Amino acid sequence: MASEPGPGPEVHGPRPGAARDRRGRGPRGVLSLPGPLSPRGAPVHRNPREAFDDLVSDVLTRLDRHFDREPDHVEVAIEEAPLLPPGWDEPVPRSIVNPAPGGYRIVLYRLPIIGRARSAGEVEDLVWAVLLTRLGEVWHHDPEDLDPRG
C-alpha cells in the first residue's frame, strides 16, 4: 500500500534563493516566502508614508518624558505637503505650529522633509531637528536641552 502524500515538505533552516532589492524598493523574494514561522509569508513592504509615520512615532516615543513634564499639551500631526498660496517664492516649510484647544499642534510635512534628505539617515536627522526645534519654540527651551540622544 502506498502512503498518502503529505501537505508538502517542511522548510527548515535558511530559505533557498537570494534576497533581492531591485530598483531600491526593498527586499523581495525569500524573505516574504511562507515558512515554518510564517506560514502565510511575512509582509516586507511598507509604503513611504508608513515608514515616515513609524519614524516620527519612534522619535516621539523617545521624547515622551518631556511630554509628561511640560504643562502645554502638544499634538503632533503629519501631512504630505503644505498648501501654499499662488506666487509663493520662499522655501517650502517643513513644519508649522498652530494653536489648538488646550495647547499647540505641530504639523510635520513629509514631502518637504524627505525632499531635503539624501538618505534615510538624513531623513531621521531632519525629523529630529524639526521636532526638537518646534517643541523648543512651544515649551520655551533650547532644542539641545530636549534632545535625549546626548
UniProtKB/TrEMBL annotation:
Domain of life according to the entry: Bacteria
UniProt-annotated stretches for the region Disordered: 1-49
UniProt cross-references to InterPro entries, sorted A to Z: Zincin_1, Zincin_1_sf
Protein name: Peptidase
